[in-house]
From TrEMBL:
It is found in: Membrane. It is a multi-pass membrane protein. Keywords: Membrane, Transmembrane, Transmembrane helix, Transport. This is Purine-cytosine permease. Belongs to the purine-cytosine permease (2.A.39) family. It comes from the Bacteria. InterPro entries: Pur-cyt_permease, Pur-cyt_permease_Fcy2/21/22.
Length: 462
């Protein structure tokens, strides 16, 4: 691998991180109460208790995809979408970078919506009834908390995420401990198995879209601070387990709550509904815990979104970048909170559509990394502004995967021509997009390698 020698890569002095830092970053970013909503979504697919737990486990383990992309960041010291230029070309990378940026902005909006609903519920506990004015104030207050994280350096981020892990991780466990006794175990165990193909697989697919695939575009953004000699296996394990433990535990709590709070899966404000299963003395602490768990997710989403703007060659002042993101993460929640008023429905559509693009990008990147970059590395000329404009193999693999995923997807916006049978009203398009892009990329990379070997053989023969 060529040694890094430009601003594309972090300097050696900045790369002293240890794997445990990645564990805390990803643990803190997944202790949010949104995991409970995931749990109720799983049961909503008509799964039994055992199937629901299995789906939660597989969905949480999908963070291994983030762990694998993190290896590239550890090896080079470059961020995720800069590394992506090797697979797509400098200009070809604009399209997936824009898509990944939109996904992070979307996640920011989801965090702000959830944070706003949580803050409103907390204010209700303190005697303030929800009004349009109070909703607007809560929206601006939580947005400001997230935007202030723009001031965090990597060292401050690691310390903050470590604190969040211990404090809000323990508080979340306390909330779960209070909820478990309210579970109607008899009703839970009486739920029959759902169909493994038409119910279980779509449930796993939608959870993967919101967990591993949802964050796959950010892996190297944080692993690039790792020491270059850090074990790749340690990086993968730290990222995967850091996310797995909180995700699986909190999703499991959501699964259990479906018997004690049956309206959770259809509520306009699921955060408020959860509080109904808690003792009154715990309600305020629960909402504070939920807020604390949401902030780290917003911090990572904003940090990666801003990094992606720079990869798009959009260089603006910090204040301008913050203003751009502020407008978007306020406008989208305003639509959901005041016009759509269907948080869970909009959330599932968002996961499905964004998941298709991210799944295709992740598969293309990982196959390129496994078949090419692990052997030849990321030469600086592949990532700089002088790089090849378009890498046809990568861009074509990504687009074909997206086309395949959308063709088998049915949403409130459109219906794909093949969204029938097991694909109707399911999120299997996400898994299909991942598989198709990965296979196409593997084939095209091998074709390119064969042509290269043929050219070299011809030169040698002459």
């Amino acid at each position: 691998m060529s040694k890094p020698s430009s601003s594309i890569f972090l300097s050696p002095s900045e790369r002293s991180g240890k794997p445990k830092e990645l564990f805390f970053i990803w643990f803190a970013s997944n202790i949010g109460i949104l995991g409970v909503v995931y749990g109720t979504m799983i049961v909503g697919f008509g799964l039994s208790f055992f199937q629901s737990l299995l789906a939660a486990m597989l969905g949480s383990l999908s963070f291994i995809l983030v762990g694998l992309t993190s290896i590239a960041g550890k090896n080079t010291g470059a961020n995720m979408l800069t590394l992506s230029r090797a697979a797509f070309g400098r200009k070809g990378n604009y399209f997936p970078t824009l898509m990944v940026w939109m996904s992070f902005v979307g996640w920011l909006a989801v965090n702000v919506i959830t944070g706003t609903l949580t803050l409103l519920s907390l204010l209700n506990v303190w005697g303030l009834n929800t009004t349009s004015l109070l909703t607007v104030v809560s929206l601006f207050a939580f947005s400001l908390l997230v935007l202030l994280s723009n001031l965090f350096s990597q060292k401050v981020l690691v310390k903050a995420q470590t604190i969040f892990t211990y404090v809000f991780g323990l508080l979340t466990l306390l909330v779960i401990a209070l909820l478990i006794p309210k579970t109607n175990w008899q009703a839970l165990f009486q739920i029959n198995n759902g169909d493994w193909l038409t119910s279980f697989l779509p449930a796993v697919s939608i959870i993967i879209a919101g967990t591993g695939i949802g964050w796959v575009g950010a892996g190297a953004d944080y692993s690039r601070y790792q020491h270059p000699k850090t074990s790749s296996q340690s990086v993968v394990m730290s990222v995967t387990l850091g996310a797995f433990f909180p995700l699986f535990i909190i999703m499991s709590a959501g699964i259990l709550m479906t018997t004690s709070v049956p309206s959770l899966g259809t509520a306009d404000n699921p955060i408020n509904v959860i509080s109904q299963a808690l003792p009154s003395w715990m309600t305020a602490l629960y909402f504070l815990t939920a807020l604390g768990g949401l902030i780290p997710q917003g911090i990572l989403s904003l940090k990666s979104a801003r990094t992606n703007l720079q990869t798009l060659d959009i260089h603006v002042k910090d204040s301008t970048a913050v203003f751009i993101h502020a407008i978007i993460i306020i406008a989208l929640p305003v639509y959901v909170l005041f016009f759509s008023q269907n948080f869970l429905g909009d959330f599932q559509v968002f996961l499905g559509l964004v998941g298709i693009g991210l799944a295709s990008w992740g598969a293309t990147f990982l196959v390129d990394f496994a078949l090419v970059r692990r052997e030849f590395g990321y030469d600086e000329k592949l990532l700089s502004n002088k790089a090849e404009a378009i890498n046809p193999a990568g861009l074509l693999s990504w687009l074909i995967g997206i086309a395949a995923g959308l063709a088998f997807t049915n949403t409130s916006f459109f219906t794909g021509p093949f969204a029938r049978g097991i694909f109707e009203d399911s999120s299997l398009g996400v898994l299909l997009a991942f598989i198709v892009s990965g296979v196409v990329q593997a084939v095209l990379v091998n074709v390119q390698s064969s042509k290269s070997r043929g050219v070299e053989s011809g030169k040698m023969a002459k």
